[in-house]
Design a protein that fits this description.
Shape: extended
Helix content: 10-25%
Largest sheet: 7 strands, mixed, barrel
CATH class of the domain at 7-24 and 85-170: Mainly Beta
CATH architecture of the domain at 7-24 and 85-170: Beta Barrel
Radius of gyration: 27 Å
Oligomer: single chain
Number of helices: 5
Distance between the termini: 46 Å
């Protein structure tokens, strides 16, 4: 079934305007549950209750308030908020083109697929092709719902993906985290860590290799419950021991990965290649951030 557009809009840069359609890029498949009354299994409804009187407050009796100090609120009306809204013409105003490597993925908030609307096929394809050849992505602002969303446009498979971005003051840095200072490693520790990385290395990310095991287990359990079966809890997982000897832990990890690789033949019927070990020394290396 073909995807349905959630809305339409335009991409604008310079004097060029490209009509587009906007589609959701993802469809989460997490298992959703409804809250029920345990006595008769009927749905329960959510109510808002006053924290001072305990009485139920009707939705039309509520107002918006901002807590400017602990327990102190200022009320903002819908009309006052409306007066602050920006234009909502669903225009994506491109402000600059930058290399994709310069945008840290931590800024990504959500994603949408963009498709050309009537009359926009050629300029849409031209923009996507030009960005791909230039090795750059577009940074701009998307005017929607009364606000301007910072966005990134990225050429993918002949089309354009729009990623919503967080603003700089919405992203935390490691300055807020206690990293407990630099650590010194021996050459042997670093080399063993490299061997373990090599053992798990892959040149491509293939998302189809991975499955949500928890969701599958929940759905299977639901099917069994519907069929009248009882669900028996599995034995608890083994607790991971605290790492005391880092070198011993790395060596044990390598041995386990080596055993798994030898037990798993490649498609050509040969054993999976093994990473070659490196000579170890006694020189110390200091771990520093990039």
């Amino acid at each position: 079934m073909a995807a349905r557009a959630t809305s339409s809009g335009t991409i604008s840069f310079g004097l060029v305007t490209i009509p587009i359609k906007i589609f959701t890029a993802t469809k989460p498949k997490s298992v959703r549950f409804s809250m029920l009354n345990g006595a008769d299994k009927s749905r329960v409804k959510q109510q808002y209750v006053s924290s001072s009187t305990g009485e139920v407050v009707a939705r039309d009796a509520m107002v918006k308030g901002y807590e400017y100090s602990r327990g102190q609120f200022v009320v903002i009306t819908d009309d006052e908020l409306k007066a602050l809204e920006k234009k909502s013409d669903r225009t994506i105003e491109i402000e600059e083109f930058v290399p994709i490597a310069q945008v840290d993925p931590i800024f990504y908030e959500k994603s949408n697929l963009l498709g050309p609307d009537k009359g926009g096929h050629k300029p849409y394809q031209l923009l996507a092709a030009a960005m791909l050849e230039a090795g750059r992505v577009a940074i701009g602002r998307f005017s929607t719902r009364g606000r301007e969303q910072l966005v990134l446009l990225r050429p993918v498979d002949g089309g354009l993906v729009m990623h919503g971005l967080y603003y700089a003051d919405e992203v935390r840095s490691f300055e807020d985290i206690e990293l407990q200072g630099d650590v010194e490693f021996k050459d042997g520790e670093v080399d063993l860590a490299h061997q373990l990385i090599d053992r798990l290395a892959s040149d491509d990310f293939k998302p189809e290799k991975f499955e949500d095991d928890y969701r599958r287990s929940v759905l299977e359990a639901i099917d069994r419950k519907v069929a009248g079966e009882e669900i028996v809890a599995p034995p608890g997982e083994e607790k991971h021991e605290q790492i005391i000897d880092l070198v011993a832990a790395l060596k044990e990890s390598l041995l386990r990965k080596k055993g798994a690789a030898e037990a798993t033949p490649t498609r050509r019927g040969r054993k999976a290649p093994q990473a070659k070990g490196k000579k170890t020394g006694t020189t110390k290396r200091k771990a520093t951030g990039s």
